[in-house]
């Protein structure tokens, strides 16, 4: 079977999947380009504790959601598909979560053994300390927003992209999948890369974590492992 076909040879389903990928890519790149243009000023604004915490949180959340969340949301709305159709269901949820946790063990051990571990802080971003100072209600509401944007949508974004690519470019290999590979590499490229010894190890354990997590998603058909990993591991160390 040919993986890459000419445009006129594509089935209706394959054309639909390609459109989905373009929707996700264009939405994400537009927002990322906007962030690249104003990123310095935005970070300065978000870190300025003299400004109310809410506009700073919403500004950061809007950019984060735009890069990792808006595209997949638009696809679901455009196709009239539910999030559950991309693996957010009860069936195999515990297996998916347990599998994702196992895949992240090398990642966590490296963070600890390399001295990069500064405390376990799930659902914490640059404005979290100011949220805590604003009172219990602000802390609860703000933490829910953080969990939704930096946890749920970021993890779900990887799951959806991996599935769409996998369906568009299917493979029969048990340990290899185009969607899983592209999504794992995407996760690495969107974060700082260093090519010293520790940097190479960091890249390796990060790739193992993301590739493994997404392969577990494929095997179980459940995306909750991705969401769980991003809430309680990826953005917590």
- Can you count the beta strands? 0
- What's the story with the biggest beta sheet? none
- The percent range for helix content is over 70%
Overall SS class? mainly alpha
> Which percent band covers the strand fraction?
under 5%
Query: How do the SSEs run, as a string of H and E?
Result: HHHHHHHHHH
Mean pLDDT: 92
Mass-distribution shape: globular
Alpha carbon gyration radius = 19 Å
Task: State the distance separating the first and last CA atoms.
Answer: 42 Å
Number of helices: 10
Which parts are unreliable, with pLDDT below 50 for 5 consecutive residues or more? none
Spell out the key features of this protein.
about 240 residues; mainly alpha; 10 helices; about 70% helix; globular
What does this structure look like?
It is a single chain. The protein is 70% helix and 0% strand. It has 10 helices and no strands. The longest helix has 36 residues, at 12-47. It has helices at residues 12-47, 53-67, 70-79, 93-103, 105-113, 128-133, 136-168, 178-189, 197-220, 224-234. It is globular and about 60 Å long. Helix 9 (197-220) runs antiparallel to helix 10. The chain is an all-alpha fold and 237 residues long.
């Amino acid at each position: 079977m040919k993986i890459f076909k000419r445009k006129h040879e594509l089935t209706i389903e394959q054309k639909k999947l390609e459109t989905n990928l373009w929707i996700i890519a264009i939405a994400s790149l537009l927002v990322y380009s906007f962030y690249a243009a104003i990123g310095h000023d935005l970070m300065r604004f978000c870190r300025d504790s003299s400004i109310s915490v809410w506009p700073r949180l919403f500004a950061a959340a809007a950019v984060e959601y735009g890069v990792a969340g808006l595209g997949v949301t638009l696809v679901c709305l455009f196709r009239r598909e539910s999030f559950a159709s991309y693996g957010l269901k009860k069936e195999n949820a515990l297996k998916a979560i347990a599998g994702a946790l196992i895949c992240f063990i090398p990642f966590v051990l490296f963070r600890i053994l390399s001295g990069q571990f500064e405390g376990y802080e799930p659902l914490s971003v640059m404005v979290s300390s100011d949220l805590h100072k604003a009172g219990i209600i602000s802390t609860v509401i703000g933490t829910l927003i953080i969990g939704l944007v930096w946890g749920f949508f970021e993890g779900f974004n990887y799951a959806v992209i991996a599935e769409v690519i996998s369906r568009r470019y299917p493979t029969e290999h048990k340990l290899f999948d185009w969607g899983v590979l592209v999504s794992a590499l995407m996760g690495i490229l969107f974060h700082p890369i260093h090519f010293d010894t520790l940097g190479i190890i960091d890249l390796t354990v990060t790739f193992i974590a993301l590739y493994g997590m997404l392969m577990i998603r494929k095997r179980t058909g459940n995306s909750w492992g991705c969401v769980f990993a991003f809430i309680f591991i990826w953005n917590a160390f």
